[in-house]
Amino acid sequence: MLSHAVVIGRSHRIAQQNCHDFAITGAPAPDTAFGLALDGCGSKFRRRGRAAPSHNEIGANLLGTFAAGFLNEQLEMSNEQKVEALLDDLYRSSLEFLANLANAFAFADEAARQAFIATRLLCTLVGFIKTRETAVFFWLGDGHLCCNGRVITLDSGNQPDYLAYRLWGEGMGDGFNLVFAPQPDEIEWLAVATDGWQAAELAQLAQPADSLALQRRVNVLARRRDLFDDDGGTAVWWRSNEQ
């Protein structure tokens, strides 16, 4: 079973900001599933004494939708492709997608282009792919990875490595960070989440739920004063009798 959910953070509601997170899942072939959670940068872009508000939820939604479409197509055609090669292709295709978005407008100069990127396209991405033979997490930026309730927190020190940084020659590396889950045949559930989640709450999602039920569960959690000051997005896979 696959589900995903997104909740707007308390600070965003108070500031009347949009939710900057996005989550999506897919099962393009038998015994094959993926989940993605993205978080748009919420910081204002400052240059020459001026500050421009962030609308990076646009990048999170667009990049997440593109990446899901890419994975659906590639995994549906063949799950025999090596996951590492598939993720290399996803990285290059995603970067090309963002570059095409940034180049679609006639900006006055490079500074205007960079301002557009900084206020529209900066977002983290954390994801998983589960096949019959393997399970892999991949990411750029911060967030959480969860396997059978064990959570790894990706802490960037509030300096995420956004994919779109590479559009102006910054960023670290030329691919996603990867970690393979050991003993994939013994995995009961997987999850990825943005940094608005807390590890303890993410680890408690072991009970399967469809997306509507998961969203309700997250909405209840968001009523607590100590949770979801920031937006929270998550994507979850649970083993079922058919998988």
CATH topology: Phosphatase 2c, domain 1
Mean pLDDT, nearest integer? 92
Give the helix proportion (percent range).
25-40%
Strand order of the largest sheet: 1-12-11-8-9
Number of domains: 1
Main sheet specs: 5 strands, antiparallel
Termini gap: 8 Å
Judged by helices, strands and strand pairing, the structural class is alpha+beta
- Helix count equals 6
Radius of gyration: 18 Å
- Low-pLDDT sequence parts: none
Report on this structure.
This protein is of the alpha+beta class and 243 residues long. The protein has a single domain (2-238), classed as PPM-type phosphatase domain (Phosphatase 2c, domain 1), CATH 3.60.40. The chain has six helices and twelve strands. The N and C termini lie close together (8 Å).
Explain the layout of strands and helices.
Layout: E1 2-7, H1 10-14, E2 21-29, E3 32-40, E4 45-47, E5 50-52, H2 57-77, H3 83-102, H4 110-120, E6 123-130, E7 135-140, E8 143-147, E9 150-154, E10 177-180, E11 189-193, H5 199-202, H6 211-221, E12 232-238
Antiparallel strand pairs: 1-12, 2-3, 3-6, 4-5, 6-7, 7-10, 8-9, 8-11, 11-12
Helix pairs in contact: 2-3
Task: Write a brief caption for the model.
The protein is α+β, with helices and mostly antiparallel strands. 30% of the residues lie in helices and 29% in strands.
Properties at a glance:
alpha+beta; Phosphatase 2c, domain 1; 243 residues; five-stranded antiparallel β-sheet
